[in-house]
């Protein structure tokens, strides 16, 4: 396949309804957690994403048997033969490191390479490793490889220096088969952590507190109930569609969503003047011409999510007045600014903050998706811009959005995929 591009012609107000897919950032830890089980697990609501394909490859490379039909995935972890993750699979996707906790606690050993940095930041895994060490693992590092070993993990108290999502998940998974009780303090509180707790408990684990800053895990002897489990909807996809509706001055009904998971985004869009109605599992966004500038700081949940920062920045590029966005989670998550400028946005970056001077219009350009959410934001920009926008680096978008262009087409968007 040649290089793929998305070609977007802007100016159409999006109208209609769209259904949100299962959450990428929930399904990835759930798939890793299957390694803790002795029995077959059925997952429902599985989104068709490149990252899910990669996690499937990771599990298969370890010996798991997987059947994937539509949005249902059946994972049989009873045939695991390896505890080593190939460096190519670690490089392809950072979330591959989520198999480390499960492999360590179930098999007493794991070997993986460092996931390495990516364009949004250096993203070390020191907090994951410190957690494993606190649980009694010995860690050896050599030529970019990490080997962790423990005859038996033992429960303990772990205070995280920062509420890291991945470290909280890895430690929860490792501790669920440890001897005794583990307490994680300053734990991440993201909805995906609650989903992981619910999934593990259904498998037979004893975990409480997810969603709060202290999580208690009473180690279980074995996990292996034969279960089926439906993953939560993707809150970042929800947020992205909300901004799409607002930015195009359209009216969109977003289905299969949990409004409480996007409160931070809803609050900011409302502050900008956008009308949003919440029902049980639906959100209706009604855009209108002209919206207010805002200040936003990204923070761990329930603060404003860093994964919505680029989408919100392109929205604020067309606001009336000057906005400031401060990125507190990743040190290098402003690479989209250069691309937004090509479309006519007026943005200056100073350290961790971006100052966005609202302009009255954006114009189409050839732009590069530098990472997943930057790519999504460029699609949003294209939908609002005059003329045609061509987005390169589409594989980043396919990591985290299922058939983005066909779903936006159903809302009336003029968007198509080309390849040469
Ligand atoms: C697959 C998945 O769920 N990805 C999400 C997850 O990533 P991820 O789990 O990688 O994000 P973390 O919460 O761990 O990272 C937050 C910050 O902590 C730092 N850190 C993290 C671990 C560590 O051992 N040491 C350390 O210093 C990171 O460099 C970063 O600056 O949460 C992020 C923050 O909400 C989201 O943007 C990602 O979409
Ligand atoms: C940064 C993201 O994902 P990951 O942690 O998988 O790189 C994201 O979903 O925006």
Automatic annotation (TrEMBL):
GO biological process: cell division; cell wall organization; peptidoglycan biosynthetic process; regulation of cell shape; UDP-N-acetylgalactosamine biosynthetic process
Record InterPro entries: Enolpyruvate_Tfrase_dom, Enolpyruvate_Tfrase_sf, MurA_subfamily, RNA3'P_cycl/enolpyr_Trfase_a/b, UDP_GlcNAc_COvinyl_MurA
Superkingdom of the organism of origin: Bacteria
Pathway: Cell wall biogenesis; peptidoglycan biosynthesis
Keywords: Cell cycle, Cell division, Cell shape, Cell wall biogenesis/degradation, Cytoplasm, Peptidoglycan synthesis, Pyruvate, Transferase
Positions that bind UDP-N-acetyl-alpha-D-glucosamine: 94, 123-127, 307, 329
GO molecular function terms noted in the UniProt entry: UDP-N-acetylglucosamine 1-carboxyvinyltransferase activity
Binding site for phosphoenolpyruvate: 24-25
Record's subcellular location: Cytoplasm
Residue positions, PTM 2-(S-cysteinyl)pyruvic acid O-phosphothioketal: 118
Signal peptide location: none
Pfam family, one: EPSP_synthase
UniProt GO cellular component terms: cytoplasm
Main location: cytoplasm
Enzyme Commission number(s) of this protein: 2.5.1.7
Catalytic activity: phosphoenolpyruvate + UDP-N-acetyl-alpha-D-glucosamine = UDP-N-acetyl-3-O-(1-carboxyvinyl)-alpha-D-glucosamine + phosphate
Enolpyruvate transferase domain segment(s): 9-407
Catalytic residues (UniProt): 118 (proton donor)
PANTHER family in UniProt: UDP-N-ACETYLGLUCOSAMINE 1-CARBOXYVINYLTRANSFERASE (PTHR43783:SF1)
Sequence similarity: Belongs to the EPSP synthase family. MurA subfamily.
NCBIfam families reported for this sequence: murA, PRK09369.1
Role according to the record: Cell wall formation. Adds enolpyruvyl to UDP-N-acetylglucosamine.
Name of the protein described by the UniProt record: UDP-N-acetylglucosamine 1-carboxyvinyltransferase
Species of the source: Thermacetogenium phaeum (strain ATCC BAA-254 / DSM 26808 / PB)
Gene it is expressed from: murA
């Amino acid at each position: 396949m040649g290089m793929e591009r998305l070609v977007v012609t802007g100016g159409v107000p999006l109208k209609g309804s769209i259904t949100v897919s299962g959450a990428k950032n929930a399904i990835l830890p759930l798939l890793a957690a299957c390694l803790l089980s002795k029995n077959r697990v059925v997952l429902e609501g599985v989104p068709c994403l490149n990252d899910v394909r990669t996690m499937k490859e990771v599990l298969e490379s370890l010996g798991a048997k997987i059947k994937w039909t539509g949005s249902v995935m059946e994972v049989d972890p009873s045939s695991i033969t390896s505890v080593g993750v190939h460096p190519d699979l670690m490089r392809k996707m950072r979330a591959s490191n989520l198999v480390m906790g499960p492999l360590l606690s179930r098999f007493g050993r794991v070997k993986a390479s460092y996931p390495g940095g990516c364009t949004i930041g250096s993203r070390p895994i020191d907090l994951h490793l410190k957690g494993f060490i606190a649980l009694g693992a010995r860690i050896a590092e050599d030529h970019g490889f990490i080997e962790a070993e423990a005859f038996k993990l033992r429960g303990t108290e772990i205070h995280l220096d920062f509420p890291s999502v991945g470290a909280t998940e890895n430690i929860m998974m490792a501790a669920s088969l440890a001897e005794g009780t583990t307490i994680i303090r300053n734990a991440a509180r993201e909805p995906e952590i609650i989903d992981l707790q619910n999934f593990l408990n259904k498998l037979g684990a004893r975990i409480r507190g997810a969603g709060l800053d202290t999580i208690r895990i009473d180690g279980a002897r074995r996990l292996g109930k034969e279960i089926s489990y439906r993953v939560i909807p993707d809150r970042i996809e929800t947020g992205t569609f909300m901004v799409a509706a607002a930015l195009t001055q359209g009216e969109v009904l977003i289905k299969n969503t949990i409004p409480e998971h996007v409160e931070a985004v809803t609050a900011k869009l409302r502050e900008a003047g956008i009308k949003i109605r919440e029902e049980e599992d639906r959100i209706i966004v009604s855009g209108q011409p002209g919206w207010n500038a805002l200040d936003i700081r990204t923070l761990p949940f329930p603060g404003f999510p860093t994964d919505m920062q680029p989408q919100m920045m392109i929205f604020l590029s067309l606001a009336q007045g000057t906005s400031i966005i401060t990125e507190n989670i990743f040190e290098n998550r402003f690479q989209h600014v250069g691309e937004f400028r090509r479309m006519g946005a007026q943005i200056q970056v100073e350290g961790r903050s971006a100052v966005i001077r609202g302009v009255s219009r954006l114009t189409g350009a050839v732009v590069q998706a530098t990472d997943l959410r930057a790519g999504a934001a460029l699609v949003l920009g294209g939908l609002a811009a005059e003329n045609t926008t061509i987005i390169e680096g589409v594989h980043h978008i396919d990591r985290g959005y299922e058939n983005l262009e066909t779903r936006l087409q159903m809302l009336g968007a003029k968007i198509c995929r080309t390849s040469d």
